[in-house]
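FW: tagging you since you asked about this chain on Friday. Here's the raw sequence from the shared folder, copied in full. Didn't touch anything.
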Amino acid sequence: MATRKTAAKTATKPAAKTAAKTTPKPADSTARIRVGIGGWTFEPWRGVFYPEGLAQKRELEYASCQLTTIEVNGTFYGSQKPATFAKWHDETPDDFVFSLKAPRFATNRRVLSEAGDSIERFFASGVLELKDKLGPVNWQFATTKQFDPDDFEGFLKLLPKRIDGHAIRHAVEVRHESFCNPAFVALARRYEVAIVMAGDSKYPQIADPSAPFVYARIMGTTEAQSKGYSGNALDQWVARARTWASGGTPEGLDVYGDANAADTPRDVYLYVISGFKAYNPAAAIAMLERLNKRNA
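HL: got it, structure written out here
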């Protein structure tokens, strides 16, 4: 083991509100900020992120010792074997966490509230072999999927909160502007489902906290910066993560719902995704170093 629904009703998009500066409570020891990347198998990382000569079968072990979480994309396209999840569990440090992209068969459909069978199959496929290393499940929707309040609520009702004694955290990654809507934010809060916060990307940004945790995907790394982002940008994302963890909403981001009364600490899962992918691990590591330096 290593050590460490149906077509949406058309409506005018509500204008985004910019999150105001907040003074959150200090994060307590129960709130954890995790930073990671998408996947661990990527040829350009070899000799850059991964040491020269490192066997490919050891890449997960290595990556999990440099980062604190990884988002798995392969589960979006097809199921894995239970033994695979068990292997991932055993190859990673005790406090490591995987977030899984839920299968597209559940989200890429006309009627979302009919996804029950696909959802059940996913959770019966062996994902619980990850045990305490199973983090949030990201239900990603197509860019063409519009917000239908009734059907979307029907979908949220299908998401299990607990399976075999294991609490399941859910996040929804919506990528159509019709979701930039106070009704959507209120619905996500009712079911305590996180809205994936898209940062530095072409997708709509909905930064309203809606669950006991925050799930952020930032996509702005560039080849011009050796660590993917400039130092100032890395500092800004770390400061935002700390604000989320403390129960606040970082200023300057797009929000659509009413002010969130809850200001209790939240776990944060922040993934450096897309952008100039070769430098994503460097960006994630640089943010973890900033977080660890302050916590030391």
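FW: The chain has one domain: 23-295.
HL: agreed, and Residues 5-11, 22-29 have pLDDT under 50 and may be disordered.
FW: great, closing this out.
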